[in-house]
Amino acid sequence: MDGYLVEQIRAAEAHVFELLDPDVLMQRAAAGLAAAILRRLDGAYGSRVLLVVGSGNNGGDALWAGVRLARRGVVVRAWRTGAKVHQAGWDAFLAAGGREVGRDQALADLQGWDVVVDAVAGIGSRPGLDQPVADFAESCRASGVRVVAVDLPSGVAPEPPFVEAPHFTAALTVTFGGYKLCQLTEPGRSACGEIELIDIGLDLSEPEVYQWQPADVAAAWPVPSSDSDKYSRGVVGLDTGSPDYPGAALLSAAGAVYSGAGMVRHLGPLPVINRVLDAFPNVVAAQGRVQALVIGSGWGQRKDTKTVAKLMAAGVPLVIDADALRQLPGAGRPTALLTPHAGELAFLLGVERSAVTTDPLAAVRQAAERTGCTVLLKGATQYVAAPGVHTVQLAVPGPSWTAQAGSGDVLAGIAGTLLGAGVRTATAAVLAASIQALAARATPGPVPPQQLAGTLPTVISALLDAEP
Ligand SMILES: NC(=O)C1=CN([C@@H]2O[C@H](COP(=O)(O)OP(=O)(O)OC[C@H]3O[C@@H](n4cnc5c(N)ncnc54)[C@H](O)[C@@H]3O)[C@@H](O)[C@H]2O)[C@@H](O)CC1
C-alpha cells in the first residue's frame, strides 16, 4: 500500500483534467462511494442515509453519491455545514429526491440513520472542526452510528504535521486515487476505520510511504533451505544487558532465539551471560565470528564510550539500540540500524520530543540523512528510513499492548537475527517490527514481552503457511 502527499494527488488530478472533463473524476469517486455504502446497507430500499456536506468538492462527491443512492430507493438527507455547497451536486441531489435537513433534525434522528456520510472536507481539510460540527461528530462517536468518511475523516490533517483537534471517527473511509498519509499513520489511522480505495485513474509518482502487509512479510522472511547450517543461517552476537539491567540481555536473547537465528552468542558481562545461559542453553558464550551484532539494550551508563565508534568503523551489520544511541559517532553507515523511540530520536536530532511526534516522517528521514544509518522509529506507527531513499517504509501495525518495557529489547534481538541471515538492513527493520506487531495481534492483551517473544515461532510459521 503506497501513501501519497496531497500535492501528489492534486498534480495527478490536474494531469487527468488536461485530458478529461473535470466532472469525470468526481463521478468515478461518487460511484465508488455509493457502491461502498450500498454494500454495507441491509437492503437499499427504505434505508436512511444522512450526508454531512461541506463547501468543497468533498461535499460534491457525497452529493453525487446521494443521487445514486436515492435512485436505488435510499432515503437520503443532507445537512449543509457551510455557507457554500457544490452547486451542480446540490441541484442533482434535490432533483433525485434528496432533501435538506438542519443540524437539529440531523442530530435528533441520529439513531435513525443507517449511515452518516462525513463529507465536510477531504484533502482540503484543515485540522479541527467548527463547534457545531465538532459536537455532531462527538455525538456520532458516542452513539455508535456508522460513519462513512469521504476520502478522510474531516478534521484530521491529511498529512503531517499532525495536531490534536476535533475530528470525525469513521467505521469506513472511502478514499480516491491513492492512500493519504493520515490513513496509514497514527493518529489518523485509528480515526479512519476500515479503508476502501477507489481507483479513479490517477497516475501517481514515487510514494512518500510504503505500508507493508502481512503477505509482504511472509514473502521477505528468510527461510532455511536443505543445505542451510547454523553458520549460513546467521550467527548473531548480543552485547546487551548489564548488572543493573540483566533483563534486557534475556529479552534480546529471546527475540534472537525465537525469530530463528542459526546461533546466538552472548558477549555481555559475565554475570549477565550466566543468566542468559540459564534461560537459553542454546546460546553460546564463547567469543567468535558473528554476522550481525546487537548492542545497547540495557547497557545503562557504560564507562567505555568508544565501543559504538569502533564497531561502526568495522563492517559487521549492527543493531544500535537504547543506551548505545547516546554514543553515536559522527559518520555512520546504512548497514547500521538505529532503533530509537520518539524520545531517543528527539535526543539524536537535538529537538523536543513533540517535534518528532507531530512530524515523525520528517524526523525519521532527517535522522537517516544526518547519521548515515538506517533508522527504525518505534511507536504506534513504526517508520523505517534509509539514507538516500525517498520512500519511508511502515511496518505492519499492531495493538498498543507492545508499548511496554522490554518490547524494544526483544525487537532488537529479532532485528539482529534478520541481519545475521543476510536480510537488507531496512527490510530487516520492517520485518522485525512487523512480526512483533503480528505476534501482539495474535495474542492481544497485557502479555509480557518475554511471553510474546515465545509465540514468535508459531506466528512465523502461521504467516509462512498462509495463502498469499
Ligand atoms: N479535485 C478533484 O477533481 C477531485 C476531488 N475529489 C474530492 O474533492 C476533495 C478535495 O476537494 P477540495 O479541494 O474542494 O477540498 P475539500 O472539499 O476537501 O475541502 C475544502 C473546503 O472545505 C472547507 N474546510 C476545510 N477544512 C475544513 C474543516 N476542518 N471544517 C470545515 N470546513 C473545512 C474549506 O473552507 C473548503 O471550502 C477530495 O478530498 C475528494 O473528496 C474527488 O471528487 C476526486 C476528484
UniProtKB/TrEMBL annotation:
Give the enzyme's main class according to its UniProt record, as a single word.
Answer: lyase
Q: Which residues form the signal peptide?
A: none
Q: Which gene encodes it?
A: nnrD
Q: Which residues form the YjeF N-terminal domain?
A: 9-208
Can you state which reaction this protein catalyses? Answer: (6R)-NADHX = (6S)-NADHX; (6S)-NADHX + ADP = AMP + phosphate + NADH + H(+); (6S)-NADPHX + ADP = AMP + phosphate + NADPH + H(+); (6R)-NADPHX = (6S)-NADPHX
What top-level branch of life does the organism fall under? Bacteria
Q: Where does AMP bind?
A: 408
What Enzyme Commission number(s) apply to this enzyme? 4.2.1.136
Q: From the Swiss-Prot or TrEMBL record, give the protein name.
A: ADP-dependent (S)-NAD(P)H-hydrate dehydratase
Entry annotated with the keyword Magnesium: no
The top of its lineage is: Bacteria, Bacillati, Actinomycetota, Actinomycetes, Propionibacteriales
